[in-house]
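Researcher: Sequence recovery benchmark, item below. Answer with residues only.
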C-alpha cells in the first residue's frame, strides 16, 4: 500500500466522521461529527490506521446499524469478528483507528432506474487501495463478497445460544394478523434500533428469516412498530388463531425471534 492512501481517500470524497476507541473489554466509535451521517444508507466507509487505508466496505442499511455489527459482533459473523479483532489489535498497539464515510448524492438515475453508486464504486476502490483487512488469503474481497451478516436474511444469532436483550408478548389483533405488523411495546422498544433501521424476524426457532423495518413514527409514544408484510401475516395465520398470544425475544437490536405457537 502507498503511504499516501489516506490523502487519496480524502481526494475521493471520503470525510472523517469518528474514531474507534477501546471500551472496557470491547470497542466503540466516538460520534465525532454532528449531524445525521449515521443514518445514511447505501454508503461507503473506510477504517484507517496511522494514515493507511486498512478496510473499505459498503452498506445498504444505515451506517449506525452496520457499525453496531463491528462493535458487538455475534457468533458466526465472520467479517464482523475479524474486523473487530483487527481494530482491537491496532488500538492495543496505541495506533489511532479513524473512520471515514462517503455518501453519494441521492436521486441518481439512468433511464428512470435508480443507481446505487456506492455498490458500483466498492470493488474499484478496493482494487485501487488494496486494503489489508479486505484480504482473505491472497485475494482482496469486498463487503458484498463477505456479506453484511447482521442484515442478511440468511444469517443471524443462534436463537438457542444467544442471550436475550428483552422479551415481549402480544395478542394478534386483526391488523397484526392480516397485515403482518406488530407493536412490541415501550419497554421492548428500548432494546431496538432507530427509525428506518432494518430488523430481521426469525419466525419460530427453526423457521425462516424475514427482513423487516423499524418505524418509530407510527405510534404517538415513539415506541417501535415493525412491518413484516404479508410473509409475516401468512405465518401468523398458519400458526395462530386470531387473537392468539405471540411471544418474542430480542436477541439483538436488529434481530427478533418470534416464537411459534408451540414454543
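Model:
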Amino acid at each position: 500500500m502507498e503511504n499516501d492512501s489516506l490523502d487519496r481517500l480524502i481526494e475521493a470524497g471520503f470525510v472523517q466522521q469518528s474514531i474507534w476507541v477501546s471500551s472496557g473489554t470491547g470497542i466503540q466509535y466516538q460520534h465525532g461529527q454532528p449531524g445525521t451521517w449515521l443514518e445514511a444508507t447505501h454508503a461507503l466507509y473506510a477504517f484507517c490506521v496511522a494514515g493507511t487505508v486498512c478496510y473499505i466496505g459498503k452498506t445498504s442499511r444505515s451506517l449506525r446499524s452496520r457499525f453496531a455489527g463491528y462493535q458487538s459482533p455475534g457468533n458466526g459473523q465472520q467479517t464482523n469478528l475479524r474486523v473487530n479483532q483487527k481494530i482491537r489489535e491496532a488500538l492495543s498497539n496505541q495506533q489511532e483507528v479513524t473512520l471515514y464515510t462517503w455518501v453519494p448524492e441521492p436521486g441518481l438515475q439512468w433511464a428512470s432506474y435508480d443507481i446505487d453508486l456506492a455498490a458500483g464504486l466498492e470493488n474499484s476502490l478496493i482494487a485501487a487501495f488494496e486494503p489489508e483487512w479486505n484480504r482473505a488469503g491472497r485475494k482482496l474481497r469486498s463487503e458484498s463478497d463477505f456479506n453484511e451478516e447482521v442484515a442478511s436474511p440468511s444469517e443471524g444469532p443462534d436463537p438457542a445460544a444467544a442471550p436475550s436483550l428483552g422479551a415481549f408478548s402480544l395478542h394478534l389483533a386483526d391488523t397484526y394478523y392480516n397485515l403482518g405488523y406488530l407493536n412490541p411495546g415501550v419497554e421492548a422498544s428500548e432494546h431496538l434500533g432507530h427509525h428506518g433501521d432494518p430488523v430481521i424476524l426469525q419466525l419460530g426457532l427453526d423457521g425462516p428469516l424475514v427482513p423487516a423495518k423499524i418505524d418509530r413514527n407510527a405510534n404517538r409514544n415513539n415506541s417501535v412498530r415493525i412491518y413484516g408484510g404479508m410473509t409475516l401475516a401468512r405465518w401468523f395465520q398458519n400458526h395462530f388463531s386470531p387473537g392468539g398470544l405471540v411471544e418474542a425475544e430480542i436477541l439483538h437490536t436488529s434481530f427478533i425471534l418470534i416464537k411459534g405457537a408451540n414454543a
